[in-house]
Amino acid sequence: DANIYLFVRVARLGARYVLVLAEDRTESYRLDEVRRDFVANISHELKTPIGAVSLLAEAMAEASDDAVQVRKFAKRLTKESERLTRITREIIELSRLQAADVLTKPDLVDIDHVVAIAIDQNRVAADSRRVNLVSGGDAGAEVYGDEPLLAVALHNLVANAIQYSAKGSRVGVGVSHEDGIVEIAVTDQGVGIPEEDLDRVFERFYRIDPARSRHTGGSGLGLSIVKHVVQNHGGDVRVWSQPGSGSTFTIRLPEASSASAASLGEEQ
Ligand code: ADP
After folding, report:
1. Is the CB of 260 inside a 6 Å radius of any atom of ligand 1?
2. 106 lines ligand 1 (CB under 6 A)
3. In the chain, N or C terminus with fewer CB closer than 10 Å?
4. Cβ(206) to ligand 1 under 6 A?
5. 222 pLDDT exceeds 50?
6. Do 176 and 141 touch, CB atoms closer than 8 A?
7. Angle ∠(231,135,255) on CA atoms, nearest 5
8. How far is CA 51 from CA 16, 48, 60, 213, in A?
């Protein structure tokens, strides 16, 4: 949207002059709009699991004589409440990021360490899905930023790569740095992403196949968190994909130098 919002003040200075002060408020209008959309999406997103929880509770009360049924409903209740917990956690992370106060004091972060954290956190999931999770490090790749947030971002990419992979396939995490850019690539051999969805997967709550993602407990927030974290670090995230063959998500961040530390500080 190409609208520009100006806040204009006019003051008369004597008989011959008029002082006009114009302030560009486009960004704050845009942020208001983003916030409104976000709240609408959250409400929509929470309604489904909350509705399911109350229906399941009712069903459980009615089936109280039938132990098998009760166990079945209890299992589904657990699933729905896990889903609620996950969505809530992701919403909190996202709103913390949107408050944009997270990088006031960027630290020097060793990217190899961030990769090690993300691999560690996903090891169990990879093993249980029989996915071969491998990483190639790059000692010396450093950026300025927030290590826990970068770990969340990479965790989300690795978790997706495993989630959308077939048994026995490979997920690789590679790091390289060149010309002042640190690149982290997460590659899978999974289902891939149709071309028409490539631009949209980073949007909040966007899922390619809601039925499948809901089944896997997805909220559609994971990649928008990745995008926010990476942008807050002055970087970008891109995706290449071939439906049926796999996907590669690449995070690119400015390599640590005194200049990058200063400019991150300024933005906040
Ligand atoms: P979700 O919680 O649903 O996984 P994300 O924001 O992490 O939400 O991802 C959005 C959608 O992008 C997912 O629902 C999925 O359809 C698709 N997607 C993300 N990563 C991959 C991947 N590595 N391979 C295939 N599809 C993916």
Report:
1. no
2. no
3. N
4. yes
5. yes
6. yes
7. 35
8. 66, 5, 14, 18
